[in-house]
Amino acid sequence: MPSFDSNGVKINYLVEGTGRPIVLVHGFASNLHGNWRAPGVVAALVADGRQVVALDCRGHGRSDTPHDPEAYAGTKMADDVIALMDHLGLEQADLMGYSMGGFISTSLLTEHPERFRSVILAGIGDAVLSGGPRRAGLADAMAADDPSAVSDPVAKSFREFAERSGNDLEALAAMQRAGRVPLNPAKLADVSIPVMVLVGEGDTLAGSAEKLAAAIPGAKYARVPGDHLGVFAYPDYTRAVLDFLREAAPVTAA
């Protein structure tokens, strides 16, 4: 797959299909293959007449994996998405982010609304309105010499998931220790493009997203079967995404 330089960090990405572009941003400890390609999300979007652009976020997959928290600080991860669009000459695109990618996409929605035609915020809940979930436990879990010593069940599950995904544990720990710019929830009231907030019915990590959806004018709120680490592999997830896009971002309007 191709890559490009984003302020000194190599970012791996894919471009598949033709038509209206949609950018996909995966979740923490995953990668573009595990979150989007393997479950068939990429194939379904391409079959719907869309061009799929997906990246391995810095610290993940085949992208560079810096071990310095400063490499992930501020808005650097969201900046990579804009840099990729600029690299490909995409003035505007639809956008879908899952979990960590959902937080990144929320930042993009509020800070760069002119670059997107519609946005799907998936795998995140009302916690985004108050700064998101605590991250210290995840950093410690990634850095632990003995994963069996990790007592927090959520952190332990992410450590196991990160190992299965083949990610760089030290890079993931650095990412979770980085200081990032918090969302200003007040900016959500100014959103004027179509948005869907999508969560799994069994997603105890994200929890409810009703308040998040209510904070965004006209946002659709959808719940589908599945838990946090696997909802995107269910047909209902892809069906909900396609239904939303066909109404809010039809390919004929590209």
Main traits of this protein?
single chain; alpha/beta; Rossmann fold; eight-stranded mixed β-sheet; 9 helices; 8 strands
Describe it.
This protein is of the alpha/beta class. The chain has a single domain (3-129, 184-253), classed as Rossmann fold. The chain has helices at 32-37, 41-47, 76-88, 100-111, 136-143, 153-164, 169-177, 210-214, 235-248; strands at 3-6, 9-16, 20-25, 50-55, 93-98, 116-122, 195-200, 220-224. An 8-stranded mixed β-sheet has the order 1-2-4-3-5-6-7-8. A hairpin with a 2-residue loop joins strand 1 (3-6) and strand 2 (9-16). Helix 5 packs across helix 6. The longest helix is centred in the last third of the chain and has 14 residues, at 235-248. It is globular and about 50 Å long. The protein starts with a strand and ends in a 6-residue tail after the last helix.
Summarize the structure.
This protein has 254 residues and is of the alpha/beta class. The protein is 34% helix and 19% strand.
Secondary-structure blueprint:
Layout: E1 3-6, E2 9-16, E3 20-25, H1 32-37, H2 41-47, E4 50-55, H3 76-88, E5 93-98, H4 100-111, E6 116-122, H5 136-143, H6 153-164, H7 169-177, E7 195-200, H8 210-214, E8 220-224, H9 235-248
Parallel strand pairs: 3-4, 3-5, 5-6, 6-7, 7-8
Antiparallel strand pairs: 1-2, 2-4
